[in-house]
Amino acid sequence: MRLEARGLTVRLHHASGVVNAVDDVSWTLEAGRTLAVVGESGAGKTVMALAPLRLLPPGAGADVEGSLLLDGRPPALGRDVGIVFQDPPSALNPLRRIGSQVADGARRGSRRRRAAELLELVGLPAWCAGAYPHELSGGMLQRAMIAGALAGEPRVLIADEPTTALDATVQEQVLDVLEELQARLGLALLLITHDIGVVARLADDVAVMYAGRIVEQGPAGALLRSPSHPYTLGLLASLPADDVPPGTRFVGLPGAPPELTARPPGCAFAPRCEFALARCASERPVLKGGVACHL
Amino acid sequence: MPSLSVEGVEVRYGARVAVAGVWLELGAGEMLGLVGESGCGKTSLARAIVGLEPLRAGRVLLDGAPLPRGRVQLVFQDPESALSPRLTVGQTLAEPLRLAGVRDRRERVAELLELVGLPAAFAERPPRALSGGQRQRVGIARALASEPSVLVCDEPVSALDASVRAQVMNVLLDLRDRLGLSCLFISHDLALVRQACERIAVMHQGRIVEQGPSDVVVNARSRGSHRSVTSLRSAASRVPAVKRRREPT
Fold first, then answer.
1. Which of A161, B89, B143, B155 could pair covalently with A86 via S-S, beta carbons 3.0-4.6 A apart?
2. A75 CA to chain B: closest CA distance, Å?
């Protein structure tokens, strides 16, 4: 099994014009492996994953170029690819019972039996099938979302910020579920997150996105241990440190990502980069050896 | 001398006890971390301290006396919903100033924006034109309008990216140093709280179950520390151990 994105570009039509929310992105994901796509809000991570599956709202006016292929053909939602959305309370229908929603994508057997199997798979008790979303905690709802994403027996799971809305201990439980499922079912996991801690825990490979482009890509261990792109370096440096005295200032990246309508002509990160060279302002770096940087 | 004293505070919603007799002391200019899992009563305690929840028992004192109005302010978790979409940043900041009878509101609004590291021109912008981090800075600036002695920050950076989170944390640490503000900083991120705060209190099922210097609470071995701390510690330890250091910007 091989899911491949090649030259993916997503153009969104805004009132202020057309922007490349995702610009010429390529990656490969194989069975049993986890690719984490990381970056700040607005980097294009979610658009990159959802637009090729036609999951963006119709009003977004997204044009997709390039390809996303599963073993050479476009993947089918549900049967090939399951999706876990970021905010379970708003992704689940408040008027339908959990079991009924979980079984929506089931391809075989009775819906009731399939819902019970799926809930058991994610470690939820059987009574959850008869419950409404408001009766479950945030962590349980996220497990139910994962169960629903697995209903069509997909080979790939896309998890879009699956732990962002949860507190730290519940995050751990949800990550445990994802890890166990991957080991049991041999799933390929495309993990979209801005949480480096989640990346460190689950990812085999990492793609770092900035302003719609991949700026660094590689095996998770090496990339987290010794990042090459100044943006990756900044992201890692902004995490809390465990070897400084309490009360120490945090190391932050200065400034904010550019508006996509006003992306600099060269490297989009150059205005925030402390190492920027003159050519960074005018010449767009290409991804070479896993890094898109002139340094 | 403690600036803020929380003495035996209890909050109930009907029969359910959300805060079950909490005692806390926050020194002048101190940033105290309050950590705990979802539903442990952190937000109910924060709201009770600033007077948004009635106290079933106990009291909250500032410098040994009942709380004067406006001297303890709350910074909310979600900058998206905490600001009115109908008001510009300037109008949002001017409202508490108007209520306090401040005359030169335009000048004071510019000062408040400067305190949180935003240019004065942001006063003309609506919240939708701001990023999440900028909105949270405006939320902090609004809390500063009544010149409080204490800020109660309820998960102020949980919804933000790591890099923006670092910027907002530095704003809070700067305010502590520049204005001598005390801060009760609520979070479920133990690693973040350890770096920002000298002391940490751990809340579980409405009670403070552990309290002490940050390094002691975070680094204590599991034996002897509450299971709530142990699970939060396990989440915090996901942060990659090997990172390249840079000088603060």
1. A161
2. 31
